[in-house]
Amino acid sequence: MQSAVSVKDLKIAYGDHTVIEKMSIDIAPREFLVLLGPSGCGKSTLLNAIAGLQDITAGEVWISGKNVSWEEPKDRGIGMVFQSYALYPRMSVRKNLSFGLRVAGLPKTEIEARVARTAALLHLDTLLDRRPAALSGGQRQRVAIGRALVREVDVFLFDEPLSNLDAKLRNELRVEIKKLHQRLGNTMIYVTHDQVEALTLADRIAIMRDGVIQQLASPAEIYRRPANLFVAGFIGAPAMNFIEGRIERGDAAPVFRSNGLTIDLSGYSFRAVAVEGPATLGFRPEHLVLDGAASSLPTIPGRVSVVEPMGSDAVIWFDWADQSLSLRLMGDVTLEPGDAVAPGLDIAKASLFGADGSRL
Ligand SMILES: Nc1ncnc2c1ncn2[C@@H]1O[C@H](COP(=O)(O)OP(=O)(O)O)[C@@H](O)[C@H]1O
Ligand SMILES: [Mg+2]
């Protein structure tokens, strides 16, 4: 199947500062791909290169089977939505939506039909005669999305479109964007530094660091089987717990040893054969079971330092060997600071990383 968007051996440098070094990625038609990573890792640079707003140093960009590496943005068949949307303040919503189409010289009836379709899709029908000043932040951002949608192209690029909105509005528009994608079935490339947006919206997430894709996989795969320590630490809130130690050959199966702790690894699926040596054990707060002894799991004994109720669940922080570890509990919590706990670890769900940080 022909990719909707392909980036081939892309390199982008500002003088001798290389931001992206030889990146390749294929995005399937109808796919929702999220580019996720910390600020400054090159997400916008990559998106702008796909859009044609950024010169590339080497490599190629293909859209719908065509090499567009040197095409103007307007000829690439894309629609783009930015974080800081500049609407035309003196124009009505209707004019804001139709402006690009009028400049492109589309027939009046076609413009009217498209504006009507887009307005209906984004619940802007009753706002068409208002100016931006008379709209709320969320409504303005919907108009900005609408300006991209009226182009009726196959590929939409979003660069942190919700970052400027408050939390409630952000959650609402996130759901709207997901519905929009389900209804339109376009290809979407969506940049964010927000892991919740990435996990909830994406078919696949490309998680980036310093211009390099660390892992490209479904949200579930990235959450359950992070490819390296960076991905493991970036995704999840509270963050994954990490314990430094060593993998050693046990009597029957390999074991992980750290600070008096010995954990049988027979339930862990190694990518390759387990080798002895330094390693980091990573586990999420929900991978601990409060009553470790009853569950016959290996236990990590400690003392509760903080209880954080979160509504539907609670996060319990406990001290073990000079470290603060977290454990997630559903339902009501009767624990208090100072209580002794011995949670059990479900090793089948945990992650092990080697000395170079990659998943074992
Ligand atoms: N015009 C520019 N000149 C020099 N360096 C730039 C320029 N634009 C961006 N950069 C650098 O490129 C890197 C990636 O930036 P950017 O793509 O905006 O990151 P992100 O969108 O992931 O936050 C950063 O280190 C930034 O400082
Ligand atoms: Mg950016």
UniProtKB/TrEMBL annotation:
SUPFAM superfamilies: MOP-like (SSF50331), P-loop containing nucleoside triphosphate hydrolases (SSF52540). Residues 5-235 form the ABC transporter domain. The keyword Nucleus does not apply. GO terms for molecular function: ABC-type maltose transporter activity; ATP binding; ATP hydrolysis activity. SMART domains: AAA. It is a peripheral membrane protein. CDD domains: ABC_MalK_N (cd03301). It comes from the Bacteria. Keywords: ATP-binding, Cell inner membrane, Cell membrane, Membrane, Nucleotide-binding, Transport. Its main location: membrane. One of its GO terms (cellular component) is ATP-binding cassette (ABC) transporter complex, substrate-binding subunit-containing. Belongs to the ABC transporter superfamily. This is ABC transporter ATP-binding protein. It comes from Rhizobium chutanense.
